[in-house]
Amino acid sequence: MSVQANLNEINARINEACENANRSSEEITIIGVTKYVSVERAREAVTAGVRELGENRMKGLLEKQESLSSEEITWHFIGSLQTKKVKHIIDQVDYIHSLDRMSLAKEINKRASQPIHCFIQVNVAEEDSKHGLALSEVIDFVKNLENYPNIRIVGLMTMAPFTQDETILRQTFRQLRQLRDQIQALTLSYAPCTELSMGMSNDYVIAIEEGATYIRLGSKLVGESI
Questions:
Q1: Average pLDDT by consecutive 10-residue portion of the chain (226 residues)?
Q2: Which residues are registered as beta bridge partners of 117?
Q3: In angstroms, rounded to a whole number, what is the distance separating the alpha carbons of residues 65 and 48?
Q4: Cα dist. 134→104, 122, 123, 206 in Å?
Q5: CB 125 within 8 Å of CB 134
Q6: Which residues neighbour 9 within 8 Å (Cβ) at sequence distance 6 or greater?
Q7: Which end of the chain is more exposed for a tag (fewer CB within 10 A), N or C?
């Protein structure tokens, strides 16, 4: 299917999810995850109206940025970020979704020429296969970022377990939302923490119903290896 057809279907489901949760669809930002697809397919997504693109590899990010340089795109780095690669991507992205350790925070703060919007990655389910801080570690981590002027904590990010069990998915997303609310209540100037980056192609509807503001869509939107 074309990206436009996929996007139309996704928007319909977003509207339904927002109606169920008494939310406005204006609160939801779609990030087109283009890491597995060609530049041409990414361009198709932009033409369809997707203006936020996510990459998880430095090479893919720089390649697509060069090819789509004439477009107004907000770029998200959504993968695990090695400290040694920060200098290569830091001035190329608008958002980083994978801040999960102090060594990475120090490198971002050192290399950035202006404040970078960051999501703290949280491993809510504490799965060995996933990166991220445990729920219990996040508030102290945020407090320790006070003297890092080039880091602005805009929200939290998580990847839910890959399961069809709706109870587990809702619990995961709900826990992240509750933690977001706790951090927001601290009213820290450098950590407004208003956003929730959660929900992917298999679970974005549930994520929206539980409070997601950014959803990261790959296969459902642009397909795979196209």
A1: 96 98 97 94 96 94 92 95 94 96 98 96 91 97 97 97 95 98 98 98 97 97 79
A2: 95, 152
A3: 17
A4: 16, 6, 5, 22
A5: no
A6: none
A7: N
Summarised one tens digit per residue, pLDDT across range 75-134 is 999 999 999 999 999 999 999 999 999 999 999 999 999 999 999 999 998 888 899 999
pTM, rounded to two decimals = 0.95
